[in-house]
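are you around this afternoon, could really use another pair of eyes. what follows is a protein written twice so to speak, once as letters and once as structure tokens for the fold. i want to understand how the tokens follow from the sequence so walk me through it. anything you notice is useful, everything is just below.
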Amino acid sequence: MEYRIFGNCGLKVPVLSFGAGTFGGGTEFFKAWGATDVNEATMLIDTCLEAGVNFFDTANIYSLGMAEEILGEALKGRRDKALISTKATFSMSDDPNDVGSSRHNLIRACEASLRRLKTDYIDVYFMHGFDALTPIEEVLSTLDSLVKSGKVRYIGCSNFSGWHLMKSLAISKEYGLSPYVSHQAYYSLIGREYEWELMPLAKDQNIGTMVWSPLGWGRLTGKLGRGKTLPEVSRLHKTADKGPQVEEEYLFKVTDALEQVAGETGKSVPQIALNWLTQRPTVSNVVIGARNAEQLKQNLGSVGWKLSPEHMDLLNKASDVQPIYPYWHQRQFQNRNPLPV
């Protein structure tokens, strides 16, 4: 397993981490992802650790805490062998203060996550979304206090706009507060908007990107493509409208290229899609998920080798789209405004 520095800090993480969004199935939305129980989770974690994947990602909102509880139980007795990231910000109840990144909510949410995870510290604590109603200074000073208390080792953010992240980094520097070292962002061969602003920012500020939904919200598993119909068993039946939308012909153009590369390399379509991400600038880690051991082993097979420059170029061209302004304009000025490639 390859390990990479996690942004602007000294922590090394495996290039793949395991996402626990399939653990629990405690709500209708997450039941469509999976309903892995403790015994199944323990076996999946065994497989991960054997492969060198010692980083496990979850969130308090996943099945309203059940995913954290199951992960904590499955890691019992081997917490020291694992890195855990979890998240807060989204609403956990009808309580008007049980949402957002206020000092009131973050301290309470962190302590609740620690109890569910059965641990006394969180390796990376992410803000799951940007809270525009809470002053950034309040968010960052609260997170800094959690770091200084030892309850949190590093902090990150997720789903931020470029200015959200840059302003947060500037405030951390101004007041000497712990900065975000990682940004957990959506990025895939059918979702490359990350490259327009967030990738250049991550490169400039040395932010380690942790990619979520690397298979395009379940569309790059090899089951979808030109001439193929959606399988009867697919979370897309219930969740397609909740995630990124993809125009059908564009999807088929990308899956055509993936199938061509898969045929020429002997690898599977999802392995190709995941490997492409591991070779992209600023990507420190890719979060993989799995409902069962076979899916996990397939996804683990996406590393330990590299796509050729020719195959990378083919995939880049097939998935390229015209960006919105001002990014299409900036593409025309790369001799003085170079973009990550």
Notes: The chain has one domain: 3-333. DSSP finds 13 helices and ten strands in the chain. The radius of gyration is 20 Å. The beta strands are 3-5, 12-14, 16-19, 55-57, 83-88, 122-127, 152-158, 180-186, 208-212, 283-288.
